[in-house]
Specification:
The complex is a heterodimer of chains A (270) and B (346).
Chain A (H helix, E strand, L loop, with lengths): L1 E7 L5 H13 L5 E6 L18 H8 L6 H4 L1 E2 L5 E4 L10 H15 L6 E6 L19 E6 L3 H18 L7 E8 L6 H11 L4 E5 L4 H7 L4 H4 L4 H15 L11 H10 L2
Parallel strand pairs in A: 1-5, 1-6, 2-4, 2-5, 6-7, 7-8
Antiparallel strand pairs in A: 3-4
Helix pairs in contact in A: 1-9
Chain B lengths: L16 H9 L6 E5 L2 H17 L8 E3 L4 H6 L2 H12 L6 E5 L1 H6 L3 H5 L7 E4 L9 H13 L11 E4 L8 H14 L4 E5 L16 E4 L5 H11 L2 E3 L6 H15 L4 H17 L7 E4 L6 H13 L3 E2 L4 E3 L8 H16 L2
Parallel strand pairs in B: 1-2, 1-3, 3-4, 5-6, 5-7, 7-8, 9-10, 9-11
Helix pairs in contact in B: 1-7, 7-9, 8-13, 10-11
The chains are: A alpha/beta (270), B alpha/beta (346).
């Protein structure tokens, strides 16, 4: 079983990338489980044809965990992909990080963490220990950074490199950086910049996904690009991403950059 | 952000902010205290308060409630649980409700003050008591006393003296109070209220009526300063310990109140002399003071007693018991000497 996690700045397109990746992987006849680890709970929505599925934490709150079983929390989406949303508190109260930990413990208890590939789609910034949970021992060992060429996006990706490096030094930890996915914003020399960033943090650009209106159109039709228009070039890029993820064997301990190095890198490619 | 207190501070003077605050609020007898946190925080403190009260022959069940937080409230926020608990507790018609926070609710950012500010027909007083912020037991005591003082407004002066911050968990808390009350009485000063020991909510408004506050010990200075600002009441920073300290205490109280203390001082000195005569049989004994539980200042004051009785302090001497808190006033000294005599004549 392969367990991968996608991390990146908020709004950068992690959920879109995750859902299309899961959809593409499912077409390789693989059993896919996608887990949305963000209180916003919209990670799996396009796999579920626009539906918000009940979140694990909402179910626990309403019914108590003793009354729940695996069928209450796992929903079948596009092409048999299995979807889970962790959920979390309303914005501004409680502790979302603890929510992720609780969700993982429950999914373990249910034996829900199974399949050929588990895709963890995690909230933008690793703001506390809870959001590093998917990187811990027994969960995702391959971490993909989703970023554009914008400095703030690279800055967030670089911060996540710090978290991966810290966690990779723990005993028994097998959490590694598996690559960088560029979800482009149509900047000049964006691919070269992100490629160079990936190299400098001791990794590689695994896929360049150009900006394409088809993503928005598919979303308005409540579908992934893979499902909405499988023949379009963007769908092909997601399928390539899926193939590369499955073939990838280069997993590294990242070397995060200092802020001034990151800035001068961005200036170099301006 | 707070830093870790030194390990040296974590033994006797450490402890938890919450426990310190509960040692105060549980002594407001017609009020209840809610601990906003997991059940264990309440259970642990209930046991401690109950056991120490029994030690002092005080058979009183502390009125403690827990908001009983579990993981669900930690994830989704505990404010609703506090609101629910407040609603059910206020139905019991307490004279006031104190809400004490815990580590976890401060960590997840529950707005305890906001929930407490909802009108419920009874005073609801929040007391910040998250232990991880670094405040020891004493800080909890101070926070609770300052929060309670906020319930009192201006009052007509009545000439009495407040006793502030008694150590409700110490053995001999009542004996120590009685001794200070006796010393005040020699100056013709009545006690106004014991803030807080065995108190009712309707007595709290009397807090500002006193002409003087006497703090149990100097660690209560922040409370003394707060009351000075709030009511203009001056304070004496500590109960007296030992021979000369007791005399100095009387003089200091008299000076602050503008009283003539020559005669009371003379009488107190005579009383001390009588005690030394009563214990003259101890003269010449070799004794050893075990400083395990007493600070250097306390040791110095106990040494003064030993010197006055012509005891010989040597490392090879017979160990004599020292109270955990140094003996208060002349009567405290007499009780200590009775124990010494039993040890020496054993």
């Amino acid at each position: 079983m392969k367990q991968i996690a996608l991390y990146g700045k908020g709004g950068i397109g992690k959920s879109t990338t995750s859902a299309n990746l899961s959809a593409a992987l499912s077409l390789q006849e693989l059993d896919i489980l996608q887990i949305g680890c963000d209180p916003k709970r919209d990670s799996t929505r396009m796999l579920m044809h626009g539906n918000f599925i009940p979140t694990v934490l909402d179910l626990v709150r309403e019914r108590g965990d003793a009354a729940l079983s695996i069928s209450d929390v796992v929903y079948s989406g596009f092409n048999g992909t299995r979807c889970v949303e962790a959920g979390g508190p309303e914005p501004g109260v409680g502790c979302a990080g603890r929510g992720i930990i609780a969700t993982f413990q429950l999914l373990e208890k249910f034996g829900a963490l199974s399949g050929d590939v588990i895709v963890y789609d995690v909230l933008g910034d690793v703001v506390c220990g809870g959001f590093a949970m998917p990187m811990r021992e027994g969960y995702a060992q391959e971490i993909y950074l989703v970023t554009s060429g914008e400095l703030m996006s690279l800055y967030a990706a670089n911060n996540i490199c710090k978290a991966i490096r810290r966690l990779s030094m723990r005993a028994k930890s097998r959490c590694r950086l598996a690559g960088v996915i560029c979800n482009a914003k149509d900047q000049l020399r964006e691919k070269e910049l992100v490629e160079e960033f990936a190299r400098r943090v001791n990794s590689a650009l695994i896929q360049f996904i150009p900006h394409d209106r088809i993503v928005q159109i598919a979303e308005l039709n409540r579908k992934t690009v893979i499902e909405y228009d499988p023949g379009c070039p963007q769908a092909q890029r997601y399928r390539e991403l899926a193939a590369r993820v499955m073939e990838n064997t280069r997993f590294t301990v990242p070397t995060p950059l200092e802020i001034h190095d990151l800035e001068s890198l961005a200036i170099e490619f301006m | 952000m707070t830093s870790n207190p030194l390990p040296s501070n974590s033994c006797r003077f450490g402890g938890c902010t919450l426990t310190g605050a509960l040692s105060v609020t549980s002594h407001v007898r017609d009020a209840v205290s809610i601990v906003h946190g997991p059940n264990g925080c309440t259970h642990h403190n209930f046991s401690l308060l109950h056991a120490t009260a029994l030690d002092n022959e005080d058979i009183c069940i502390p009125e403690l409630f827990s908001t009983g937080l579990t993981e669900t409230e930690i994830i989704f926020g505990g404010e609703e649980a506090l609101d629910r608990t407040l609603n059910s507790v206020t139905r019991l018609d307490p004279a006031a409700v104190f809400v004490l926070s815990t580590c976890i609710v401060e960590t997840i950012g529950d707005d305890v003050r906001m929930v407490c500010s909802v009108p419920r027909g009874v005073p609801v007083i929040p007391v910040p008591t998250a232990g991880f912020l670094g405040g020891p037991f004493q800080e909890g005591v101070n926070n609770a006393l300052i929060a309670l003082a906020g319930m009192a407004g201006p009052a007509v002066p009545n000439g009495g003296v407040n006793i502030i911050g008694e150590k409700n968990l110490e053995y001999e808390v009542n004996e120590n109070f009685a001794e200070v009350a006796r010393l005040l009485d020699t100056l013709g000063l009545p006690v106004n209220i014991r803030f807080v020991h065995d108190l009712n909510v309707d007595q709290i408004p009397l807090l500002g009526a006193a002409r003087l506050n006497i703090l149990r010990d100097p660690a209560l200075e922040p409370v003394g300063t707060c009351l000075l600002k709030q009511f203009g009441t001056r304070y004496i920073p500590s109960f007296p310990v030992g021979i000369s300290d007791t005399i100095a205490f009387l003089k200091s109280v008299a000076d602050t109140c503008g009283l003539d203390c020559r005669e009371p001082l003379e009488k107190e000195r005579e009383l001390q002399e009588e005690i030394f005569c009563d214990f003259a049989d101890l003269a010449g004994y070799e004794v050893r003071l075990d400083p395990a539980m007493t600070d250097m200042d306390g040791i110095r004051k106990v040494r003064e007693v030993a010197d006055a009785l012509k005891l010989d302090i040597t490392p090879a001497g017979c160990p004599v018991p020292l109270p955990a808190d140094p003996p208060v006033g002349t009567a405290g000294m007499r009780r200590m000497l009775h124990r010494w005599r039993r040890s020496l004549h054993a």
